[in-house]
## 1
Amino acid sequence: MLKLSESIYNALRTHGEETYPHECCGVLLGRSSHGVNEVEVAVRAGNTRTDSAHNRYSIAPQELVRIQRQGRERGLDIVGFYHSHPDHPAQWSKTDFAEAHWLGCSYVITSVGGGVAQQTNSFLLSGTSEDDKSFEDETIQVEELVAGRC
């Protein structure tokens, strides 16, 4: 299961709208325990794909290391990644699968049609190695903001 606040959920979707017709991408920082990836921070990343940014994304290794360090300074780990699919379903592609390497992480995809965020789905990359990895549909639990809650 992927748990995140309503504000983070909305931020992922807004990012996809802002970068349309190109794919957006980012990193999810938080904590993972007992089969739950709980997101505390979503960090926008630059899409370094210049050849086909409308249907591919890539996060520069230096940026990924910087984001990972920022997370560790706050006691957080990388628990997932997100990106958008402009004018395509919120379903992983063969390329998404081939380029997914962080076992145990959530991969969140938002379909953005005509510049408007539509469906958002999450997929858990499970397995023990590259040889047996697979994507499993993952439930997204969006926690509403409650006034007066700390």
## 2
Amino acid sequence: MFRLIGNRLLLLAPTIIGLSVLLFLWVRALPGGPATALLGDKATPEAVARVNEAYGFDRPILEQYFIYMGRILSGDFGNSLLTSRPVLEEFAARFPATLELTAFALLFAVGFGIPLGYWAARHVGRWQDQAAVLLSLMGVVVPVFFLAFILKWVFAVQLGWLPTDGRQDPRIDATHYTNFFVWDGMITGEYDAAWDALTHLVLPGVALGTIPLAIIARITRASVLEVQNADYVRTARAKGLAPRLIRNRFVMRNALLPVTTTLGLQLGLLISGAVLTETVFAFNGIGSFLWDAIFNLDFPVLQGFIIFIAVIYSLINLLVDVSYGLIDPRVRVS
């Protein structure tokens, strides 16, 4: 297991280096050069010369790359053109919101996706199976932004059951230590603030978690059907083992192996794919911040976001490999 973790960590270095080279070349290929892109409408010849000197854009290309890598490794991604604050500070302030939303969406997807897939496999060929497959297809086909607007219109505007947007009612005087609003409300004893933050997560979390739910349900269904027909399951039934024991120890434990891999991939997609959902619900996370950066050509933010997501993806893959090894003993001994 430790060798597995070490090998995955070693693979992280060439991934980051390769991505840094691509980003370095992309910034240098911008129209007018990186200094012009950073300055925007303020790109006078004097200002461009000052930026080139300050950031080392007038130096040899290889020296520029080493300067660039030094800043990345030290966490210096530059300042946002919109807020004039360091990009890393912006991410640190907004990432808890995205992570909180992602956690809710993933819990929603797992909590309904795995039972739905197992239920469909137990009733394969019947109307229950067909209904589950139809729901999973709808979950994949319906665009996230369209579903977000529908949920918002029905449950927030028409019924008034849930808030329309934001992370928390601004009228609530809540204490925020970690920027995880639900957790902050729990640790400070402000349970009304925690509940309000949780209700603000429902609609965007459901909209964001619908596609992962459908994918998890389909993977679970296929995996359970495959495991149910395995020789060791038939042998366990022939020996007269209890159905619950067969289901928990033999069927679900082995069926969850491909589901674990799917969960890791979906977690990375949820973090990077929260842009539209956060925009629709005015959820102040890195997704909405990235949306503003795209339309305002805030290149430091875009560059930092790409590297940030690459690191997150690599860490998630490491977590998936470790989880897979804990479930499957064959991986632990390899």
## 3
Amino acid sequence: MENRMSLIVFSGTADKLMAVATLTSGAVAMGLEVELFLTTWGLQAFRKGAAQTNMSISKDAGEHGPALLEQMRKKQVPGWLETLQQARELGQMHVYACAMTLELLDMKLEDLEPIVDEVVGVATFIERASESRITLFI
């Protein structure tokens, strides 16, 4: 097993992306290499400029969603994209866009935030994730 954590980022809501960013930061700080595989709504969230306007909260948060966002604003918690950028400065982090999802959405790598490193197929990601110590789906 590689000293790596692989995250499949399926959700595009701000609360779940904050969980992705927090887990990534923690893992990088502990010396793990982190790989994010962006697909479906998670990929949509990485469109250039989307992070600044995405204030959606998952239905899992229920009535607590708006209060969570307000507390984050009051406490000046950095946004999920900023947190991921900081994690990249701390250690090894790679962000991959799902090739099939990009094609489905008529998008290109250039349409995504610069933090996204490259486009890969699902088989490539699964092969790498199978060698990871930790694999999560968010």
## 4
Amino acid sequence: MLKHPKRLAGMAGLAASLLLSAACGAGAGAPADIDLGSGPAKSGTIKKDALSGLNMTFVSYGGAYQEGQQKAAVDPFAQESGAKILQDGPTDYAKIKAQVDSSNVTWDVIDSDSIWAEAQCGKLLQPLDYSIIDKSKVPEGLATQCSVPAMQYGMVLVYNKNKFGANPPTGWKDFFDTAKFPGKRGISGNPGDSAPGPFEGALIADGVAPDKLYPLDVDRATKKLQSIRPNLVFWKTGAESQQLLESGEVDMAMMWSGRAYAAVKNGAPYEVTFDQWMPIMDSLAVPKNAKNPKASMALINYYLGAQQQAKLTELTSYSPINTDAKPNLDAKAQSFLTTRPDAAQKALKIDSKWWAEHQTEMIEKWSAWLGG
């Protein structure tokens, strides 16, 4: 699997926008009626040449992740369907809003943060057509009215096995126990990226039961975080978190599973524990008033196929969200997949609906604590 620059959970106005003048023609030449064939939808399939003559635009976060999406699903879909698909990015929420507000939507399928997608259902995003999209192989509860998962990863606890190998930390309580587990801890210092992670970890460490996390008690969480602040080393990008491991600057870290794998693959002497890890997803969605909604649904349906998902995992460090996907990975890479049954059963249950309702407020509070 490739190392890749993990995008930060985007907020309106935070992502830099690439202007793609060619996208202005998206939708030109669209057939009057699209025939996707008869019978129930089956993920990973598209009727041959069903979209011949149609222009579409797929939007994601760039880097090796979007390259993987293109190779695993978007280009093969174009070849099968006959559509011409332009690539744009990075995903920019302000730009999506401007397109929808002006009724000039030039993006057809977008990859976004799942919490933002939850919050924008029926506002900037339209409901998905599940007569075209087959979600039967998507784990229960991950497909929503307006979005499906694009992939999965997680916020995990990693530790230096040379230092703690004989007595390793097993959860967030240990991450906050600097007496039993002395040393520096890496943690996100990005003011626009608070969910999920530090607040949940701090509350679990302070004794809150996993099923009583929400609504998050921010005052209690920040007090717990403050108790270990002298031991914290803040990272702002995935690349920085990975470098903290490769340089040995921290003894533990709360970080993205893909970046942890990349560091270990490069020789960093760290192990990951999946106890109490926090699932995170990107989502695929269709902007409200998109010019080619039926074709957009067909692209999402194709993307969800087992073969496409397996290939995406092989090209990136993200876990597949089709339960039939069987990526060809070595043992170490397999051990970092969050969708393994033995890892999935240890995950904290993240309330994405609560986060969607409170995301802006929580980012403000997280930023305030970081600045304090």
